[in-house]
Amino acid sequence: MARGDLTDDEWALVEPHLPPLGERGPIPDLRRQFNAVMWRFRTGTPWRDIPVEYGSWSTVYDRFRAWALQGVFAHLMEQMIAVAASRGQVDLALVSVDSTTPHAHHHAAGMRLDAELLAELEKAADEEKGVRERHKRRTTRSVTPPGRRPSPNAGGGDAAAGPG
Predict the structure, then answer these.
(1) pLDDT above 70 covers what percent of the chain?
(2) Distances (CA, A) of 40 to 69, 84, 155
């Protein structure tokens, strides 16, 4: 067992939630492959750099990909959290969420504003919208570069060409 591999007690928690069968039948080295996947993500190395004691890197990658597509890791995480919660071992102070969408803190909900301040904020927002609209109209017009006259046929087709 390499440093960082699951202990027997940890494996006893994880094993029931992993699919025992692969595409071609039982997975003979399930624990070794799981440890290899965990090693790869713990170290951040490329798949090809997985140590040979874990087996072929391509086999480990294929197993990881199959598990990921089947939702094994999401299910495993849910089950591990449920087990920890049932034991009273969940500390939500340690929860970290990474998101590209910012959310307001719960204290920001239901903020009370002075009526005068609210009116000023609404007026400022309306003015900002007006500035944006004027800027948008100004930038969408066709602009003739300096030193050039607008063409007499700015409306579209070529008047000299005629039909056809």
Answers:
(1) 67
(2) 18, 25, 63
Separation of alpha carbons 88 and 96, rounded Å: 19
Question: Binning pLDDT at 50, 70 and 90, where does residue 127 land?
Answer: confident
- The angle subtended at Cα 17 by Cα 13 and Cα 19, nearest 5°, is 135
Give the span between the Cα atoms of 94 and 119, in whole angstroms. Answer: 41
Q: Which amino acid belongs to residue 131?
A: V
Name residue, tokens 């500390």: 91
Q: How far apart are CA 90 and CA 82, in angstroms?
A: 9
- Distance separating alpha carbons of residues 130 and 134, to the nearest angstrom: 6
Distance CA 92, CA 38 (A): 23
